[in-house]
Design goal:
With 218 residues, the protein is mainly alpha-helical. 78% of the residues lie in helices and 6% in strands. The protein has a two-stranded antiparallel sheet with strand order 1-2.
Length: 218
């Protein structure tokens, strides 16, 4: 029975993973230390062999093997802890995924609780109805007034008259000779006088002061 306070909650998976990683770091340091001891014993054995100290060299090799055996054991523990960490991380991720999916399903359930197929159909039908009303109102507003229609008809008639006048002018320009080819009144008079002189016998008196010409028959 606990007299003071409440029992501490069990460590969650994140704390467990953190502790396992600390243990892995400790194992790595221990392995490194034993491996260095093993390497030194092997070097010492080689030196003793050169010195012809076979018994001492054999003892160094036995120590090396003991260190190597311990390194191998630690490696086994290291692999086991690594597998546990990997499994815990995957389990934690799966749990988070499941919780998220559960929350999502609950949210969808709550939303769909206020929404049915009939309500959706009614809403869509109402939207279509309002859009049709909007189109009718837009057409009614944009339709010109009666006076505007009359004014437009008058303008169209006036435009047709302008077009007919332009067409008549084009036809006249095609049929009528150009102004340059027509004789001027002065040319007509001169031509007449010359013809008269050639066909009859006249005397011509010219009054230069008044620009007058007199004809007398011979």
């Amino acid at each position: 029975m606990k007299l003071f306070g409440k029992a501490k909650p069990a460590n969650n998976s994140q704390d467990t993973i953190a502790k396992l990683r600390l243990t892995l770091e400790m194992l790595e340091k221990r392995q490194k230390f034993l491996q260095e001891r093993s390497d030194r014993e092997e070097l010492e054995a080689k030196k003793l062999v050169v010195q012809k100290k076979k018994r001492e060299a054999l003892l160094c090799l036995k120590k090396r093997n003991n260190f190597l055996n311990e390194v191998n054991k630690l490696q086994g523990s290291y692999d086991t802890l690594s597998s546990q960490i990997f499994a815990l991380e995957n389990a934690k991720m799966n749990m988070e995924i499941m919780n998220s999916m559960r929350e999502g399903a609950q949210s969808l359930k709550e939303l769909h609780g206020h929404l049915t197929v009939d309500k959706v159909d009614d809403t869509i039908e109402e939207i279509q109805t309002q859009m049709e009303i909007h189109e009718e109102i837009s057409r009614a507003i944009s339709q010109p007034l009666g006076t505007q229609l009359d004014d437009e008809e008058d303008l169209l008639r006036e435009l047709a008259e302008y077009e007919q006048e332009d067409l008549d002018m084009q036809l006249l320009n095609i049929k009528a000779p150009s102004r340059e080819s027509l004789p001027t009144p002065t040319q007509v008079k001169c031509n007449y006088f010359l013809k008269l002189l050639l066909t009859t016998h006249h005397t011509i008196k010219i009054n230069t002061n008044h620009n007058l010409i007199f004809f007398n028959t011979i």
